[in-house]
Each structure stands twice: as C-alpha cells, then as structure tokens.
Specification:
nine-stranded mixed sheet, TIM Barrel, alpha/beta
Amino acid sequence: MTPTLKELKGSEYRTVDFYLSKSCNKSCHYCTAWTLQMRNLNVDMDLVRTILKGLAPYKTRICLLGGEPGLTKNLDEVIAEIKKYENLIPQVLSNSLVRKFYPHILEDRDIIYIEHLVLDFYQDKIEKLGNYPFLPKNDLNNYNLIIETPGYFKYRDNFDLTEIDHENTEFKEYNSRSPDFFTDHELVQAPELERRVCAKFPQVPVFDFEIRKIRHCSRKAINGSREFDITVENITKMMNYELFDFEKYCTTCMDIIPKRPKMRRDEITALISKEVNLLDLMDA
C-alpha cells in the first residue's frame, strides 16, 4: 500500500519531478515552468521507461507535473508504467484540472494526488484555479496544498477555514520562489555546507520531457540550471550523489533550503568531506 504523505516525510524515499509538458491552462505569476501553448501533450513512453529503469533500484516518489499534468493525453499510461515498480510511487500535482479529465486518479489510493487549487488568498476572498471545493478529509491519499502567503493569514483572520484544517491538507511555508517574498523577509543566505548538501541532490531534481534532459535544480529551471543527458548511467550517478556538483549558481543561491532526513544528510556530508574541509565550511 502506498504510504501517506505523513509517512513519507523523513523516510528513505527521495523525490524527483517529471516535467511532462510545460503546457498549462493557467498563468500563475509564481510558476517557473509553464506556457499557454498546447505542446508536447503526448508523453514519450520510451523516455519514461528509460528513466524508470534507472530509478527502479531506489525508493523514489515521482511527482508528475508540468505545466499542468491533466492536459497530457496519456497520463494514465505514465502512471501505469510507474506502478510496475515496487520501489516507485506515482504522485500527481494539479491545479484541479485532473478532476475534470482524470477523475479516477482521485479514487486510487496508490496514487498520491496533491491539488494546488488556490492561486492566492486576499483579505476578503479566495482566488481559485478551478471551480471546485477543497478536498475533504479522506483515506485516498488526496491532499490540498495551501501556501501560507501573507494574504492567507489575513483571510483566515476574517473567515472560517476549518474545512481545510485536517490531515489531508498540506500547509507550505511562503518561500523565496514567490516574487514579492523578499519585500517581507530578510535576505539571509543558507550556510555553504547546507548549499553543498543541496547541490549533491536538490530537493527535487527534474526530468524535463520537453528538452529530454535532467535538470540539476528546479529553482533554476528557466535560468541556467546545468543539464545532463537522460541515461540509466546518469540516473544511477544522480541517485548515488555522483552526478551533480556545487555549481557557480549554488555560490550565490539565496533560496531557503529545506531540512533533509538525518541519514541522507549524513551520507551526503560524508561525501562532501572527501572534497572539501568541513571545518572550513562551518567557519564560513
């Protein structure tokens, strides 16, 4: 049985993103990978099989997104292929369009479905990306994703939001991907050691189906991230922390770096210690 999101946190599972297509039916201001052009909507299954062959030995959560994954013509086929592998978990992140074109996904507990329904909260209204209610508490691995923007707190002060106060809502901290984040937050760079740990295996490395490459960092998805050919050899290197390096853009990165599970962090730190003096990094 597929674990819940709560069970996955801090577990041995790692996460990768599949940018199936950049096409989307929306134009969210904070998104780093979208186009209103309808293109690349048929996912190359040969490429999918190559990637899954490389990931198969490792416990991995595969997040299917875009763009908007609900626009792809063969999303069911992609999910079915992932399900063939014991170590792999399919996850779909949608703005709610999946409810229209692939409603059966929400009925399958072995698919983690995360819905980013809200564009933003305002003091007196919620601007949604689809004409649907929030997902209720459920045992089907369906989750609301709520970004705690400044507007979220203002709206919550004035209106009842108990409908999302349950275990199937993921509350995500307002972060540095948001264009106006630094108007409200002090600019503080993460320590170099943390950036080096992140560089070895970013929070979510990206398999970009439009350019047929592995992107080192999704936060640089449209601004200079290093790219690698999609081969089983490169995927094996990536999963063993041997593909990615501390790039020039890592030295100037100002993004907030999420905490890693201790076991994984210790493993990566041990590799870094063979490359640089950790004491120098801690003093920096």
